[in-house]
Write a structure and sequence with these properties.
48% helix, Rossmann fold, globular
């Protein structure tokens, strides 16, 4: 039986619908902001400040580990750019699993599950693997149907809405209109 869940949160707009969804399942929710992939640092800070505003507005506890480990993220992905998504998912969901276990949560999940731009089968696989590794359940739900609603909610709340995933590679791809050759982990999202 799951009574509470720690939600890894990538950004406030994705959190809007996600938090509502899990609360509708009668779960107590708390958030975790751990996103060393977000570049540049000013973007990271802007997303974090928006998330703090949102968390306060919905009375949600928010955990923010100290530091900004961009170097750790880059060390994991440099030379593996086509495989960066699996490395990024593993890094962030592992931290969520550790935090959930340490803080006594029954389960953890991620707001990444609302995005139509993410590969859900990979998120589910990584989430379940790190959950098993750390002894805490990963809750999977396909929340993509709530993506438009999350955009509407974030506009209504005046939350900062970013224009790219977060990592330096996705920023480059977005603004230079380039694509890094991908392996299976960064293929287009599942249908």
């Amino acid at each position: 039986m799951v009574a509470n869940v720690l939600i890894h949160i990538c950004c406030a707009p994705c959190a809007t619908y996600t938090v509502e969804h899990w609360r509708a399942q009668k779960l107590e929710v708390a958030g975790l902001s751990f996103n060393p992939n977000i570049h540049p640092y000013t973007e990271h800070r802007q997303r974090l400040e928006s998330l703090k505003t949102f968390a306060g507005s919905v009375d949600m506890p928010l955990f923010i580990p100290p530091g900004y480990d961009m170097v750790g993220f880059l060390r994991r992905v440099v030379g593996k750019e086509g495989n960066r998504c699996i490395e990024c998912f593993r890094m962030r969901l592992s931290e969520a699993a550790v935090q959930a276990k340490d803080k006594g949560f029954d389960a953890f999940t991620t707001t990444l599950l609302i995005s139509p731009h993410q590969k859900h089968s990979l998120l589910k696989e990584v989430g379940e693997a790190v959950g098993e590794e750390h002894g805490v359940r990963f809750l999977y739900a396909d929340l993509r149907q709530g993506f438009s609603e999350s955009r509407r909610m974030s506009k209504e709340l005046g939350l900062y809405r970013q224009q790219y995933c977060g990592c330096i590679y996705s920023e480059w791809e977005r603004y230079a209109r380039l694509t890094i050759p991908a392996d299976d982990s960064c293929l287009p999202p599942d249908k």
